[in-house]
Amino acid sequence: MDTKQEIRTGRHCVFMIHAHLVFVTKFRGRIFNAEHLDSLEALFRRVCADFETELVEFNGETDHVHLLVNYPPKVALSKLVNSLKGVSSRRMKLLHPELAKPAYLKNALWSPSYFAGSVGGAPISVVRQYIEGQNRPNKSP
């Protein structure tokens, strides 16, 4: 991707801020299949749009997800993460009731912690390749 295309403008700023986020399921439970990950991606894209943030890349495995987001300086990353995790947890249980069943989850889909790394040292293309290389599970029969 051309750097010129990645530079965004706001009312009083020009920016290119990317963060690599990783969310882990509660107790690292292996609960996601490809259908769940597709739903999560759609939910994350909607939340990002509400924050004027772009979900550049998304992928995951059975127990965690990776997001690459491009966000404006006015967005507090912790607030974005809180909304991404909260909305996805609530909506996923409605869309996929089987995710609400495990008693050990105690109404929480995600672990309370998360990883957030600024992406600037490594080229975005390298981070995108890494996320694309995650082993997406097969859809359930």
UniProtKB/TrEMBL annotation:
Q: Under the GO molecular function aspect, what terms does this record hold?
A: DNA binding; transposase activity
- Pfam family name, one: Y1_Tnp
UniProt GO BP: DNA transposition
Please report the stretch or stretches of sequence annotated as the Transposase IS200-like domain: 14-134
SMART domains attached to this UniProt entry: Y1_Tnp (SM01321)
- Record-linked InterPro entries: Transposase_17, Transposase_17_sf
Coiled coil where? none
NCBIfam families linked: transpos_IS200
Q: What is this protein called?
A: IS200/IS605 family transposase
Gene designation: tnpA
